[in-house]
Design goal:
Layout: E1 2-12, H1 13-17, E2 24-36, E3 44-57, E4 65-76, E5 79-89, E6 92-101, E7 106-115, H2 118-122, E8 130-144, E9 148-161, E10 165-175
Antiparallel strand pairs: 1-2, 2-3, 3-4, 4-5, 5-6, 6-7, 7-8, 8-9, 9-10
């Protein structure tokens, strides 16, 4: 059996990455890994991740955002799972879950993204060319790796970029296991 934990508190991004990242912010987080066995077919492993950021920004001229990320995943006798993936990045929210069976190569994945103000979400992360709009995305992937099927629904409203106004959009896409 093994147990591994890593925790960091109040790490200043500017001090840590000053030569590679012009931004600022404070991050804290933890990773915990507990398990037994090493073979994916027989191991039992739990992974927990938490990350919090305060005042994250790509530079002094950009309004900062806070972020919070949590995830819990596992591997149990050949079945990999993500029970919970949730992220709040400024006004945006990302949620996901899923499973993948190693022997049968079957998957069931779900992801949703909701950003009421994409400019406010992305500018502090360095994407300053986005000027406004909102997006709502839902995606489901099932089946096997060789024959996946998916459904995607994406809606956007008032999307504005530096060099173009995209406006509103709606995308519905699907793929069944037959291609």
């Amino acid at each position: 059996s093994y147990h591994l934990g890593l925790e960091w508190k109040l790490v200043d991004l500017h001090s840590l990455l000053k030569d590679r990242y012009p931004g600022e912010g404070i991050v804290s987080g933890s990773i915990r890994l507990d398990g037994r066995g090493v073979s994916p077919e027989t191991a039992s492993v739990r992974l927990r991740l938490g990350l919090n950021g305060t005042g994250i920004t790509a530079g002094p001229s950009v309004s900062p955002i806070d972020l919070h990320v949590e995830s819990e995943a596992g591997l149990d006798t050949g079945q990999a799972t993500i029970e919970n993936l949730s992220a709040k990045i400024g006004p945006a929210r990302i949620d996901g879950s899923g499973s993948y069976g190693l022997s049968m190569k079957k998957m069931d994945l779900k992801l949703s993204v909701n950003a009421s103000n994409i400019a406010e979400t992305l500018a502090p992360l360095g994407a300053k060319q986005v000027r406004g709009g909102s997006v709502d995305i839902r995606a489901d992937v099932t089946g096997t790796v060789e024959k996946p099927s998916f459904q995607l629904r994406a809606n956007g409203a008032g999307i504005r970029l530096d060099k173009a106004d995209i406006g509103d959009f709606a995308i519905v896409a699907a793929l069944d296991e037959n291609g």
